[in-house]
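Students often ask why we bother encoding 3D structure as a string. The short answer is that it lets us treat folding as translation between two languages. Here is a chain of 474 residues written in the first language.
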Amino acid sequence: MLNPKDFKKEAGPVVDWIDSYMKNIKSLPVKSKVSPGDIYKAIPPEAPMHSESMEQIMEDLDSIILPGMTHWQHPGFHAYFPANSSVESVLAESLTSAMGAQCMIWETSPAAAELEQRMMEWLRDAMGIPGNFEGVIQDSASSASLVSLITAREVATGFRSNEEGVPPNLRVYCSSETHSSIEKGMGVCGMGRKNLVKIRVDKQMRMDPEELEKRISEDLAAGLNPCAVVAAIGTTGTVAVDPLEKIAAICKKHKIWLHVDAAFAGTALLLPEYRWMIKGIEQADSFVFNPHKWMFTNFDCSVYLVKDAGLLIKTFEILPEYLKTKTRGLVNDYRDWGVPLGRRFRALKLWFVIRSFGLDGIREKLRKHIALNKHFTEVLSQVEGIRFPLEPFLNFSCFRLQAKGMAYPDELNRLNEAFLERINSSGELFLTHTKIDGLYTLRMIIGQTYVEEEDVERTLEIITDAAEQSIKKG
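And here it is in the second language, the structure alphabet:
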């Protein structure tokens, strides 16, 4: 067991390890190559009875844990959406861990509450969100969207559901491309997955407003209660941007809660040239985006903004005797702004990142990633057999192989599944896939904090070689 007085000495090897990891991450396979159960079997079945040295623990970190990690900060990581870190964020997380604060209310750490309030204002204003929105940090967009659904549920039922239970006729609408967390949230909040109405999308994978209006009208005629609409600014599969202004007008007409899920693409709102994505945002009720995806801030850190914080607080506040304080009503007690009572000091890493990078520095990084993606798609489009089913957008593109004479969906899907496997087997890259119109399609995100042009050039080499080999083998 370590003595706090020896912290500097004991921390030395850990700091050295982190330094080496950051410098040498390219030499590691981006995706773990272990088989299911390998790590579990390497860990003793019983906890040690006696103290073990940090030296031994660090050795096992290298021999047992590291081989089982997929390296999200690797410049060859282009899968899912990024979960980016940065030196600034790592340092801030270290300080947060050292303080070990539980920031549930203002009294438990006034600086944590007030820094969080100011960070939400900084980001709101920098992104062009109206000034009457207030914010809170949630752990993820999934949690933020759940909070929005619950608030919408309470508003639709006159705040009776928390007391009496959820009525069976509440309906929520989203596109067929919206993140799975909305479907999960419907079950968790008691409205039921069967009451989630998935609206068809157009050729650009965006929600069809005419279909939305039609489905809402049908539900009203059937005696059902339209409760909320979830619009996506950057869907998970294809980064599609739903037509927010038209959706907002429909919600205003029918007095329906509007939640905007911009988990990944919301960071692009820091660039004035992408503010068109949220035209109509003043009509929305809530908005979420994740700095931990593309704003160089360690997971977890999700910014949730609401137009009427009073409705949010009324939905979640419970005041037992042991949480009563004299400052209540004078400050933000963020435990009332979401599900959990306990809260981490997440605002500190945002403060470090924004101050160290500066808004100009963040914008420079974002534009660099967008430019790298443009270069990537221009070069890849020259490769035989490569097809782009959608126009590249931001730092995202999707593509597939189309071999000559191969037209059947099953054939194309098998070809592209093998294509992806060949790319990932290199150990230098990790991509994932989606399906567009039933066809297996590879996704590419260029968003790792420190990715450079040389990394993208290497990515192009590996994908080009994999495409040639895949076509040869058919």
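Translate back mentally: The chain has a mean pLDDT of 94. Keep this in mind for the problem set.
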